Amino acid sequence: MNPATNETKIEIKGLTMAYGSYVVMQDINARVKRGSIFVIMGGSGCGKSTLLRHLIGMKAPAAGEVLYDGRSFWALDEAERQTEVRRFGVLFQSGALWSSMTLAENVALPLSEYTDLAAADIAEIARLKLALVGLKGFEDFYPAEISGGMCKRAGLARAMALDPEILFFDEPSAGLDSISSRNLDQLILELRDNLGATIVVVSHELASIMTIADDSIFLDAETKTVRATGNPRELLQHSPDPTLRAFLSRGEATKLLPGTATTPPTSTLQPSPPPAQL
Q: What's the predicted TM-score (pTM) here?
């Protein structure tokens, strides 16, 4: 079940991203529906991760605004922005786990920083979040002792530690083999369906885009703006834009269109004994 509604959770209005006089992207407009998976897609270097940084409060726009539930994020004062940011969970491209901490300690960190919960309660929540992403039994492992796919899932568990309303993922499938990538896609879909999370994903991985996206924007480096918006499967079928069609028809993407056969990924949302490393 897809719990997405027509209610707008995030709105981007007339956004321009720049470093000094160099404009990365301009006049970006988009709406993200509550409970949906929204993909920011485009080629390498077009500004996808830069847009994510603007959305999560790491960089202010040169022009335009970002609204959450109708409130302009960058019009808030610093304290109000920090309160808003605590509603976010972020999975960075590398996973960004602390190598000197166990997986449980990594997940517990935001709980220790931003809540008054007792240590025993924090430890229990950390175990629950790790179990939720299929890492039950790996609480005392260090990042160097597990695979890349498992590190991504541990990073996701940490992103969910504070029960955020919105999850942001920066190239979650980057560096993963095809099986690990499909499993992570399945986990993202289950987070949307079972938890009702609003999810924003930066990606150029076509298989992942076609599998998880409810809606998307396509950033074009040549025109430095949004070239297309919509469900990427529908865009591939119906858009006459040759640049967009070239991006969406690379590799195996067309095999993921509705009505074509694919191998379904394995569900990973149920707690289980320690799995074999992916």
A: 0.84
